[in-house]
Every structure is written in structure tokens, then in C-alpha cells.
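Reading a protein record of the kind used here takes only a little practice. An example makes this concrete, so a full record is given next.
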Amino acid sequence: MNKIFQFGEDVEGYDIPVLNEREIRAAAGILFLATFLALMFIVFKANFVPIKYVITFFLLDFMIRVFINPKFSPSLIFARLIVRNQTPEYVGAPQKKFAWMIGVVLAATMFFFFIIINAFSIITGLICLICLIFLFFESAFGICLGCKFYPLFFKDKVQYCPGEVCDVNQRQDIQKTSLSQVLVLLGFIVFTVLTVYLTQDLFSVTPHDLFGNTVIEQSN
């Protein structure tokens, strides 16, 4: 029974239960993609059906993670299959549990609005945006935004963070950003803004069929 209801794995060499960060990032990417696609149905089709399924799955998945065992989370199982050949990167389980509890609260709120009372508002829009930001940062950068709030509520020191960001380490040369790199980045941002402004009329022309006479009608 203890093996079923537990949070994190006991791994030799680690003082506290840990989780595999590679699985977590992969699962976050899966959930991000599902949520983003569902929101596109709302934006372009005014179709709220996909987001209702995504919210239901999201809530169930996170409740399994927090209240039963992350090992039985469908998204984490799928993620484990995808990254099973990669060397595990262990992270502390306590801060992840706290972050996922935030996810449960957000998903439960969305479930109440979209499923129970079948309504949307600026509240649901903001929660969707927050969820997308959290999932994107986790999957793309390996940054757990929910974990950042853990020290505000618990006195225990956060251990085994992704990339060892919990520990005070001196950056290696390959991690440092030079002034020239910053200038290149700023220059590229300026170039992008100018390109959008100067080529708006040119890029707005609808493409034609290269091998035929089909022309896509541009909607007004």
C-alpha cells in the first residue's frame, strides 16, 4: 500500500524522495501542446469542447500526481516512455508536490467555471494564461515557477533543483553572456519590429498556388 500512495522515489545517494525532471519536462510539454491547441479552437472556431476535455484530463492527472502517486499519472507515464532512454535528472519531490498542488487548484477552478457552471470570463482567461506560462517555462527552460513559491511557505531548504540552481555555483565561461551578445539580441529585436512595420503590406498578400490556378480568397 505504501508503494501505491507515495510521492517521489527513494534513490540511493539522495536524502529525500526525488522525481525524474526529464519526465516532468516531457509531460509539461504534452500538457502545454494540448492546452494550446484547445485554446486555438476557442480563438478561431469559438469551440469550447476541446478545452473542457483538456481541463478534465488536466485536473484528473494532477490529482493522481498529488494525492496518489506521480508514477500513475497518465501524462508522466507517457512522458516516461518517450524519455526512457535518457539518463534521469533527479529533482527534489517536496517542491514539485507544492507546485502541482497549485496546478490542482488552478485546474479545479477552471473545471468549476467551464464544466460545472459552463461559463467563461476574464478569470478563466487569466488562469489559462498562467497555466500556459507555467507549462512553457517547465518544458522549454526546465524552470518550475510553482517551485519558486515553496520557500515562502516552508522553512525547509529546497534541494536538488533542475540544473542545480538551488546551489550557489559560479557560472562557467560558456554560461556567461557578453555585451556583444546582448547587443546582437537587442539588434535582432529592433530588426524584427522594423520588419513587421515595413513589410506589413507585402506579407499580407495571399500566396497563390505555384502549380495551379487556385487562389485562396482572403477573408475580410
Observations:
- The longest helix spans residues 21-45.
- The CA atoms of residues 71 and 202 lie 52 Å apart.
- The chain has eight helices and two strands.
